[in-house]
Amino acid sequence: MRSTVLNTVIIYCRPGFEKEAAAEIADLASALGIYGYPKTTDNSAWISFVTHNESGALQLIEELDFASLIFARQWMAASPLMDNLPEKDRLGPLLERVGEIAPGKFSDWCVEYPDTNQGKELSPFCRKISVPLRQSLKRSGLLKAKGIYRLHLMFLSGREVWVGVSRIDNSSSWAMGIPRLKQPKAAPSRATLKLEEAWHCFIPKEEWATRIPAGKRAVDLGAAPGGWTWQLVEQGMYVDAVDNGPMAPELMATGMVDHIQGDAFTYEPKKPVYWLVSDIADKPARVADLVGRWVAKGLCREAVFNLKLPMKQRYKEVLNCRDKIDARVSEAGIRYELRFRQLYHDREEVTGHIRVLIG
What we know:
Blueprint: E1 8-12, H1 18-31, E2 36-40, E3 46-51, H2 56-63, E4 74-78, H3 91-100, E5 108-112, H4 117-120, H5 123-139, E6 149-155, E7 161-167, H6 192-202, H7 208-211, E8 217-221, H8 227-234, E9 238-242, H9 249-252, E10 257-260, E11 273-278, H10 284-296, E12 300-308, H11 314-331, E13 336-341, E14 349-356
Parallel strand pairs: 5-6, 8-9, 8-11, 9-10, 11-12
Antiparallel strand pairs: 1-3, 1-4, 2-3, 4-7, 6-7, 12-14, 13-14
């Protein structure tokens, strides 16, 4: 069995952020000595990064930490685009291509499509082909119980498909990188899902009990009407909700929220808290200064915060904000982890997370 080349990284992203995803992967690949060039189409919700080495894409998804990417929802090392699938026998050519791909056998697989209105029209087709495809993969011995790779098939149309692989331990665990979260009826706003998704993204589930601890205190800056405060209360935390605007009456009735009417940029708690969260709509650099000050002064152990991005140079703006926080916290002699990710529930923004490391 011959092996096909895996020289293209396919990255799924938010529609409209293709250029940011492309600039980021080009920077990070170059830092690893993996060279190539990105190809983008506006509002397509995916980009390709073509490496100069025929196994460069596989090398990239092996060596680059997926968690370090800001604008990627999911990725795969792909073989050349299949753009002429016969309508009467799609499975035959697909199985042949899958069989050619090193590493050869997979313990997980998914059929996907771009997260656009046009892409979503492929959902019925993808569901229809999934059952016979799974049966064929099993019969051919290409699926196994244990393994480190996931097989991806991303359809662009009924005749066009990218076929590739990702490492299960170095990619999103959600199909298409989209979490399946349900809007809580009791939450005051849809913004509540941003904080829930951030916890799923930045904190391993087995660490929730110790890192999102019931009984601890938290501060929500720019809290009204209380979407993020609601998530904190659901976890059993007591919250200082700082905002001049009104909080949801049902949330205040829990007895776990102190509404502090004041300036979120000048407020500081009398004692350090475990969590700081902030969804303030302000200039990203100003929010970065705020978060850096809180962590440098020891006012919180962990923080989740949103950066509302400008219309231009959005990737550069995130890097500038990262550098601001890095400089402030490093100067204070504090060990920490800092990550950014454009979440599914984000819009023209990215979410940051910082954690102070103890010991």
